[in-house]
Recover the amino acids of this structure.
């Protein structure tokens, strides 16, 4: 991939931030960044088009096109400028009620809570999917995952859809930022393609260490099909260590190595997804076997291990924040934290109905925190409706990359919300998983074919009635999220016109995302 290289520079003196002026002060640290006058950018774009177009594969041509777009629409002035760094932390299966700043008292989460006290807590933030792969596809592309052909889980089993993945013609936030001169990396869970051709290094990331499946043994790094699954770049690589610790180590090392350049680090933690294993537990999987060595879901074991998993992940977040401070880029770095879907097993969705794998609030309303010293006021809280597809346009807005440099996003930038606590205009968000579909129209939520009656996840807060005998929510249900985020009172019969209008909107959305949706291969090649 073509990459502009940074010029040598010396970091200037860095004055202190006046904490009383959070909302108006820009970052007080400046770095000398890549110097490309507009005429050089144009020549680079023209050279790409004239000399390489007929000699590269489609995937390479797409990346070159992104470089050309960024060069043309986002020329970088030959003067000192501030570049925002990015640390995107997505954890796995963490519920809305699993952090102290969201009301949990089960285990301490001081570093997650620190993100809230030093940044903004979003209380109406959602994953675009209620399971792993779809949310990740939506996050990476900034578009509904249905457009990318990943509406559901990409499974590890060889007799299912293990051969599916994020096709290389899709554009990721890493590709756009890389073309704009950022060093990019992902550490941890990928889960949008098992085969080597779908590896992150072919999708805009300069550096990758992690696993490509839905989950691995935290110690032996074996996936659910008995396959060894730990990668450095596009090669299987043996590396001893607890998964959470390894992800943290590599992320911190990358930040330390690239603090003098603009960087984007995507930290995709495995915790607290199963298998439920603390750092001192034994491996639960062996290579070549699908049978488990022991039952990691046994309630007492799972509860204890879950707490340890959350603790180690929280410590890792603290290490990342510390390395940002030690390398002097803390107030140049936007950090965003969220979960890929709701909780299951020993996790907690708080007072929300449902859990992972459902389109009830517990399946996709997730904790989300944003921190950017000097730009985001500490201790702020926003009730703005938002979701993970908004992350891509938010990153590119902070990076000042023109919207002409990437395909049209289904999301919107949250920069005004985060930095000024503004309220966006009317929003309509959509979800689909299998036969179930749902929609938010501001505070109204419609759920169609919500599915089976649910029992609370083990150890979840039992403060809602999960199985009322008069429960009428599981075919068509309408809720007012302003007063009933626990989805207890179905208003569908009270507001039939609103139900009809929202059903119609869902139908139009389903038709829209199906147009030119990416087809997955019939079989592995």
């Amino acid at each position: 991939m073509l990459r502009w290289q940074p010029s040598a520079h010396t970091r200037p003196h860095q004055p202190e931030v006046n904490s009383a002026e959070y909302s108006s002060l820009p970052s007080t640290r400046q770095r000398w960044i890549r110097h490309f006058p507009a005429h050089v950018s144009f020549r680079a774009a023209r050279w790409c088009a004239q000399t390489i177009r007929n000699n590269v594969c489609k995937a390479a041509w797409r990346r070159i096109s992104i470089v050309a777009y960024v060069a043309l629409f986002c020329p970088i002035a030959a003067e000192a400028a501030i570049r925002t760094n990015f640390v995107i932390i997505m954890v796995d299966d963490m519920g809305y009620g699993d952090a102290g700043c969201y009301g949990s008292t089960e285990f301490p989460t001081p570093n997650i809570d620190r993100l809230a006290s030093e940044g903004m807590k979003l209380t109406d933030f959602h994953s675009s999917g209620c399971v792993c792969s779809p949310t990740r596809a939506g996050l990476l592309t900034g578009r509904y995952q249905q457009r990318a052909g990943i509406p559901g889980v990409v499974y590890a089993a060889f007799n299912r859809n293990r051969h599916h993945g994020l096709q290389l013609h899709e554009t990721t936030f890493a590709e756009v930022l890389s073309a704009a001169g950022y060093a990019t990396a992902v550490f941890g869970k990928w889960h949008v393609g098992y085969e080597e051709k779908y590896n992150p290094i072919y999708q805009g990331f300069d550096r990758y260490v992690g696993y490509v499946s839905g989950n691995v043994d935290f110690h032996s790094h074996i996936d659910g099909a008995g396959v060894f699954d730990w990668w450095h770049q596009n090669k299987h690589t043996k590396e001893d260590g607890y998964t959470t610790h390894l992800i943290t180590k590599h992320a911190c090392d990358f930040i330390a190595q690239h603090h003098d350049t603009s960087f984007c680090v995507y930290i995709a933690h495995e915790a607290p997804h199963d298998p439920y294993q603390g750092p001192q537990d034994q491996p639960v999987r062996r290579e070549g076997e699908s049978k488990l060595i022991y039952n990691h879901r046994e309630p007492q074991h799972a509860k204890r291990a879950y707490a340890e998993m959350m603790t180690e992940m929280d410590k890792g977040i603290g290490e990342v924040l510390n390395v940002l401070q030690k390398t002097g880029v803390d107030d140049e770095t936007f950090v965003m934290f969220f979960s890929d879907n709701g909780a299951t097993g020993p996790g907690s969705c708080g007072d929300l109905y449902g859990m992972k794998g459902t389109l009830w609030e517990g399946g996709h309303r997730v904790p989300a925190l944003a921190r950017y010293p000097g730009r985001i006021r500490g201790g702020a809280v926003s009730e703005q409706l938002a979701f993970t597809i908004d992350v891509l346009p938010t990153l590119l807005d902070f990076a000042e990359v023109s919207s002409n440099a990437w395909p049209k996003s289904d999301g919107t930038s949250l920069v005004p919300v985060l930095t000024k606590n503004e309220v966006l205009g009317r929003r309509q968000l959509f979800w689909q998983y299998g036969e179930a579909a749902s929609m938010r129209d501001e505070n109204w939520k419609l759920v169609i074919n919500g599915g089976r009656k649910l029992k609370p996840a083990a150890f979840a807060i039992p403060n809602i009635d999960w199985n009322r005998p008069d429960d009428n929510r599981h075919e068509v249900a309408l809720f007012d999220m302003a007063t009933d985020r626990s989805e207890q009172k179905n208003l569908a019969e009270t507001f039939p016109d609103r139900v009809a209008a929202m059903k119609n909107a869902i139908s139009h959305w389903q038709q829209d995302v199906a147009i030119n949706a990416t087809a997955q291969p019939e079989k592995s090649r």
